[in-house]
Every structure is written in structure tokens, then in C-alpha cells.
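for the writeup, i need someone to sanity check this before i put it in the appendix. the sequnce is what the collaborator sent (i think, or maybe the updated version? ugh). structure was predicted straight from it, no edits. if anything looks off just tell me and ill rerun, i have time this weekend
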Amino acid sequence: MGSTIVAILLGGTIGLVALLLLTLLTAALVWSGALPPSVAGILLTGFAGVCAFVGGRIAVQKGRGPAMPLGGGVGSLLCAVLLVICFSTTGVDGLHGQFLGILLMLLAGGCLAGLLGKHAHKSKKKKR
């Protein structure tokens, strides 16, 4: 149980850092004029799914137990962190369609990592 929680926290941390870096990159591109603001929301939604998927894959590889709870746990952890940030900064006003899409994409990316994830099995030596 302990390694499962550690794996979820590790995958969630890596996914969150990657999402924050990609959000910073998107903001810089919008600010410089290289990216239209209308495309930024769709891009961030896609980044959310990719980051949750990557974090979920790392959790599946590092943790023990079934892959689906590990990947889903990472997606849920990222959703919870973003919900806390949203409620602490904007309150209920921040819950709009695009933000809900990002939350659903986080869950979907984590669950997809769990569905596709398999542990590396150690090869057993043949007895002679």
C-alpha cells in the first residue's frame, strides 16, 4: 500500500510540474503574440491529458498493484490539486466549461495510462 501511494504522489508531482511548465510556455507564447488566445485553451486541455498520461505511466512503472488504480489515482490527484488552486484563487467563478474540460482530460489521461500500463515482469529462470 505504501509503494502505491508513493508512486501516485511521484507521478502526480511529475505530471503537475510538467503541466505548470507547459502552461508557462503557453502563456509566454500568447503574450509574445505567437499564439492566438483562442487556441490557448484547447492547447492547455490537450497538455493536461498528456501530462496526466505521463504521470500515470510513471506511477504504473514505479508502483505495485493493479495499473488502473495507479493511473486513475494520478489523474484524481492532479484534479484535486487544480480544484484547490481554482477555489483558493477564484472561488466558484473559476468553474467554467474550459476548466471542467481540463479536469476531465486529467482524469481521462490518468485512466488511459492505467488501461495501457502493465508492470514489467521479472523473467523466471527455468529449472533444469
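DSSP finds four helices and no strands in the chain. The chain has a mean pLDDT of 86.
thx in advance!!
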